[in-house]
Amino acid sequence: MAGRFRFGLLYTGGTLEEWRETARKAEDLGFSTLVAQEHFGAQLSPLHSLVAAAAVTTRLRFGTIVLDNDFRHPAVLAKEAATVDVLTGGRFELGLGAGWLASDYEATGIAFEAAPVRIQRLKEAVQICRSFFAGESVTFHGRHYNVTGLEAFPRPVQQRLPVLIGGRQRRMLSYAAGEADIVSISMLDPRPKDGPPPPGFAEKAAWVREAAARPVEIHANGFAAEVTDDAAGALQRIADRIGATPQQALENPANLVGSVDSIVEQLQGWQERCGLGYISLQPRVMAAFAPVIARLT
User: Fold this and answer.
1) Quick check: is 1 in a domain?
2) Using CA atoms, how far apart are residues 129 and 148, in angstroms rounded to an integer?
């Protein structure tokens, strides 16, 4: 039996009124969440933007996909995340990642260390945040962070503030499956000119389900989603852009193309095969996807 589906809107607006208008529209169209990413580019700070958007909505939830753990100390992160949950009335979902975009590190002078180091830091940060959200006085001594007698204030509104962890490699996705409430599967793998293609979404989802200690929500970013009567043409354009065949492009739920009926069937298929239950879309397709959202939520 099909489970519940959620749809997020990934947004990076630049003004207060843009955030407010988009939040209202997303809520009216049936989106579950408004989500912000974190990069040092032409965008506002994600946490502040989400709080501003929350002020003009009542049902919409808010999340980050994803905050770079290296950009703030976990004591600061925990306090900010709990504060956002308070200021949004318990509608916040904290999305975290180990960091991946080298240009963000180059622009800020933050050291872009090896993946195992960044992942270990993320694991320590999640431990600190979990303790903070539970309302405990936090004392933690790890390889990268040391916190002593940190007062856990404010306490989040939600009894368990949801944590989303994103990744693309097996070790990271397996860790996320054991720790997070939501696992965001990235498909930004380099595609080699020679040799086998990178793992498909189904294989990565199997890693998550195998490692999960309890039910987790599986998330994907629908970067190339498009409601269109020319599905073959749209799929070919996607395949050309990513250097793949149309069949390979179909191995990623980011590439949802076709009629409303077709996309509903595609999403139901992904859910049945992989447990996909949450997908984020770009603003350019939000109105076109409203009928899909109405069918699946």
Assistant:
1) no
2) 14
Q: How many structural domains is the chain composed of?
A: 1
Predicted local distance difference test score (pLDDT) of residue 189? 86
**Structural tokens at position 124:** 């320590």
- Kindly report the average pLDDT of the chain as a whole number: 95
Phi, psi angle pair for 60, to nearest 5°: -60, 135
Q: Where are the beta strands (DSSP E) in the chain?
A: 6-10, 33-36, 61-64, 67-68, 92-97, 138-141, 146-150, 163-167, 182-185, 217-222, 226-227, 257-258, 276-281
**144 and 120 Cβ atoms separated by less than 8 Å:** yes
Is residue 85 domain-resident?
yes
Position 285, amino acid: V
Residue 45 belongs to what domain range? 6-296
- CATH number of the domain bearing residue 188: 3.20.20.30
Q: How far apart are CA 282 and CA 65, in angstroms?
A: 13
